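Milestone M4 deliverable, item 7.
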Amino acid sequence: MTPADDQAAAAAPAEAPATTRGIFDKKLLAACISCGFCLPACPTYRLTQDERSSPRGRITLMRALETGRLEEDDPTLQEQASFCLGCRACEPVCPAGVQYGSLLEQWRDHQWRGRHVPPLALALRAGMRVTPAFGVAGRLRGAARPTGPAAPIEPDGVRAHLMLGCAERALYPQVSRSVLALLPGVVDVPSGQGCCGAMHAHNGGSEQSRELAEELGRRLPGVILTTAGGCGGHLAHVLGRDRVRELSEFLLEYWGERPDRMPALRRLTVEGSDGSADGRPLRVGLQDSCHLRNGMGVFAQPRELIGRVAEYVELPSAGSCCGSAGTYSLLRPDDSQRVLDVHLDEIEAAGLDHLVVVNVVCQRQLIAGLRRRRSTTTVLHLAELLARAAT
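Output delivered:
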């Protein structure tokens, strides 16, 4: 299938297939009207200008796979299923409401089977189930300690259960500690937490991912508070939006309802060489979490909170994927770096003191990228920034 064929197919209305393989949800696959609004929003299309690397082009490939016009071993199918970041930036701009994220999961469930599974993706799916190891690492690193079985959700007591992300508790233990400092007595940290399944959903294991999310939902009944956009987006998809709150939206909701429980947040300023403040407010930017922004509709809240404690600087690429994309930076490091470089250029040009993140994989990606460039900009989770302002 040539690029010209792909472009012609993508520009034409979808026809009802005579036979189907049953790989995709028919209604989801039929929803795309091939209008092309998704193209400018797609990071991989912006990199390549190749129709096959756009959401519209990939849906054309999905339809060809579903109807048998392309063989399952076609190399283009394997390449494009892997090349997609899964950022879902196409969804908010789609006038037809195409649920591209769900289609991508169905595609990878089928495509990444047997000998076609990327070995690293298979290893990660298996490794993320070893949650006791993450728990031990979290305790050794000083993450928030479990408080026992989940407490009842009560109006004047615990309002939400803090989910400890698998990797976050080991890599960035200060995040969960900062949340407890901001919300003393308002959240608990239930013991026995397992993986939420987000990584599995993005790597060809959506059935297992749903089982993991449902099990976590049983262990954390009521409202679940998340500090990682990817985990939050997946849990909201499986358990329902009413069950899941991301940190920034929860803080604004709770502090708005109970202003007496809101800590006094001071404006953060730059410190001089002697440790004293020089009066200049910190310049702070934000990197959105793709699944938080595009899946849960949360993007204004972290900006509002940053603006309360620092000079907020909006980066042109803040709302687009940084290239981490769950396991993407591990599976396709070169492509991930190409996406990231745009962000690093903007961060350095903006002269930021800090870049705030709301997702653990973005945090790892941006710390590594800025370190390679020997940048003076440091990366903080939103919880860390606010905890500093509350001291």
